[in-house]
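RETRY 2/3 - previous attempt timed out on the joint model. Re-submitting the same 356-residue input unchanged.
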Amino acid sequence: MSAALFIAQRLSAAVLALAVSVHLATIIYAARAGMSAADVLARTHGSFRFLALYAIFVLAVAVHAPIGLRNVLREWTTWRGRSLDIALGLFALLLLVLGLRAALAVFL
Amino acid sequence: MTAAMANEASAPLLDVEVWRGAAAGSFQTFRVPRRVNQTVLDVVSEIQRDQDPTLAYRFACRVGMCGSCAMVVNGRPRWTCRTRVALALGGAALLRLEPLRNFAVVKDLAVEMTDFFDKWRDAKGHFEPGPSPSEGFAVVPPASAQRQAADAGIECIGCGICHSACDVVAWDREYLGPAALNRAWTLLNDVRDRGNAARIAAVSAGSGCHLCHTHMSCTQFCPKGLAPTYAIAGLKRATVARALRRTR
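RETRY 2/3 succeeded.
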């Protein structure tokens, strides 16, 4: 792992620590308040705060997870080199697309 | 029969399993007299001298200065000259001796150290004086932070115990490893050295300090009581600082 990947993983972890906390608190609040799916969607539709939070969350996941997975694969398999980096680049893209699609779905 | 011989004849025996072969091989069991204050190196030497002269192993100083007698003793990397059998056994009934982990085995208990020291070279683990010789003596106050950081890791004698203990080396054979990185850290803190740009680039590369998981096995097993984990953490900080400075 290069210094750049190391920094990216540490910084994204710091963002995730905050984003996951807000995410969990939101879930617990919604569940305890007995909110229905329609109630939740009514609050997220058009809310730029929700969109911003989840866009940042998804971005941090798309940076953090592939770097960690790359380390795991390098340590536990013999997969190395360019093909590994390309595969994990595509995995990052997949996480980003799926995540942003979900964030937009509750916003629009 | 002399008293000493009678004592020997009645001495309890110790079963010792010793690795024979290279990468492929098997354990061979020997039986040696158990003696007071016996070290593991005493056991190996007794086997080699009295029972099987073809047993290959390595030692030189016998007093914990050279680091050449390192082996894996009952699953733990140790200097055999400084390890008493009683300590190594703990509650176990027999002694099991293997060559150092994460090294190619030459024969039996002797390992090939070339790859290990190549990593010191790759981590720029040599003093770099710069293009022109220094004028006069460099004054390095013993109490300065950099001198103290270098002092903390300077006593490494390159025995390979930490390299054998490190799980990350076992997973990724290209990882520079705790010994080479510890050496790089001592030089990074040497105010006379002029090679730090290349050194930081070397330890920032894909197989460098960032692969460390901070398991601390190197620090746990270092017979000199050094803390390569601390050195590696220092290198991580230095590489991050350098990367951030470059982007500004």
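DSSP finds four helices and no strands in chain A. Closing ticket.
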